[in-house]
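Thread: Newbie trying to understand structure tokens

Hi all, I'm a second-year student working on a class project, and my supervisor (Dr. K.) asked me to get a predicted structure for one chain before our next meeting. I've only ever worked with sequences, so writing a 3D structure as a token string is new to me. If someone could post the tokens and maybe explain what I'm looking at, I'd be very grateful. Here's the chain:
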Amino acid sequence: MELVSFDLCPFVQRSLITLLKKDIPHQITYIDLDNPPDWFTEISPLGKVPLLRVDDAVLFESAAINEYIDETHAPPLHPEDPLRRAHNRAWIEFASNLIGIGYRSVIAQDEATYLGVMDERDGLLGHLERQLSGGPYFNGSVFSLADTSFAPYFLRQSFTEPLHARESLADFPKCQQWRDALLALDYVQQSVPADIADRYAKRFGGGYLYGH
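---
Reply by user tm_fold:
Sure, no problem. This is what the structure looks like when written as tokens:
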């Protein structure tokens, strides 16, 4: 398997966590999304990463990629119960929205815009907080594809938390506990470059959050 990646992409990280968790041999090809190579634009229908190349086939969208990896390499990371599995899939989509909120917060150019985005974030985290139970993971003691989907958001939140009081998870203790459990995992730590926090700051240093 070849994962086509951009080093800061949270959606790529989802798939890489899954590959690492399952100990699947793979290679990673990094591209510059600001100046993508011709071969990439020819095979990426939406011009986005991740892509997973399996022989002559190309898969796109991290949720679809993760489902394929999970279905072809045991043991499964989705719940066995169909209702709980559908429930997890819905919250994986929710995680995509939360990642989008995180991106909007770091590109905000002024305080008013930033605070408005953070109000939206707090609304989403409130729903998530009520969803969580005993932990340490989304489904309790068993790591799942839902965890791979939220880990990228929580990692990036850990970078921005020291920058502004509104970044804190203090009002969402279950989310904070879950974040800490995810970020302690070797396969989460290994799913990003060692200097990703510095790369993230450099990429988004022109926004309000990093510059205020």
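A couple of things are worth pointing out once you decode it. Residues 108 and 157 are 15 Å apart (CA to CA). The mean pLDDT is 97. Feel free to ask follow-ups in this thread.
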